[in-house]
Amino acid sequence: MKKQWIGLLACLYACLAWQCTSKKKEETQTTKEESVTPSYTKEHVVPEKVSKIAFGSCGYQDEPQPILQLAAEQNPDVFVFLGDNIYGDTKNMDTLRNKYKRLGAKEEFKNLSQSAHILATWDDHDYGWNDAGRHYPFKKESKEIFLDFWKAPADDIRHQREGIYTSTYFEAEGKTVQFILLDLRTFRDDLRKYEGQEVDTTKFHYGLDYWPYETADSTLMGTGQWLWLEEQLSIPADLRIVCSSSQFGITYNGYEAWANFPHEQQKLLDLIQKTQANGVMFISGDVHYAELSKLEREDNYPIYDLTSSGITSKWDFATPNDNRIAGAIMENHYGLIEIDWNPEDPVIHLKIVDINKEVRIHEQIKLSEIHYDKL
Ligand SMILES: [Fe+2]
């Protein structure tokens, strides 16, 4: 009897010891897995090297668009439409669809589509309404029209989630150029109206529409897009072109811009720092002229924002912008980024080319200037 008890106890002990060891093994395995760099899904991958990127915004669908023809003649690898790609301004979805059709029927648009990969995001007028945000009542219908016109395949992730934000990776010969296309309409809270707050009237000689939020309880991008963006910035890339319909790098000017949501503008800068994302620069549209802004950051690389907004549109004056380092260019134009990958430290040419084929802005930066490992 006693022997049987001893045997049973020994068996129980062995069993417990085995369980303990295997649990430890599991724990070790989990720790190991967690320490591995997460690999996120790249939404669109094109196995090509990108050296020439053209872009623009604000084209009226019922006017000739010679700027698109000039851009096509450059044979860019990619052309990015940065919003106001048509002036929809309607709550009738047949009208919206027809206006896209009129853009699609243009020879210059067809030529450009044949000579370059086309990427697109929207701004207010092609989303549907001037300065519209998340309360625009036809945002779901407008999104399907957008995805249809810009030829998103049936299995495109954008069909399954809210909004039209997405990313595309061009990868070849060991070089990756990542395009991050933001959606600044679907989730944007109402803007805060300007209500006569005191300003420097010598600087702001025109009517101001909006005033920046002073608390962090409003959003431009929305929670889901913020989480997605963090993921995107964590994926390795040599150069990242953040495509933003509104200007990112400018100072407050009373019109639509990231500056109306200073807490989210700062959040993006903090996210670049947190993810140690290399090679981030912005391209933007919206304002009907061109300029280059440089947002300097202490102990961090500067953020360039090259604005091109004049496929057909024009504006009478450029608003004050403390970060402007080139421009403003008031004639119709397109933006051009050329990357010379040959030097050990690749060179990026940031250009604005006008309707007369004249290069009006040309700023040259080295890739290392916007990389953490070279700071
Ligand atoms: Fe516009």
TrEMBL record:
PANTHER family: CALCINEURIN-LIKE METALLO-PHOSPHOESTERASE SUPERFAMILY PROTEIN (PTHR33987). The keyword Hydrolase applies. GO terms for molecular function: alkaline phosphatase activity. InterPro entries: Metallo-depent_PP-like, PhoD-like_MPP, PhoD-like_sf. This is Alkaline phosphatase D family protein. It is an enzyme of class 3 (hydrolase). Keywords: Hydrolase. Pfam families: PhoD. It comes from Rapidithrix thailandica. Residues 66-318 form the PhoD-like phosphatase metallophosphatase domain. Its EC number is 3.1.3.1.
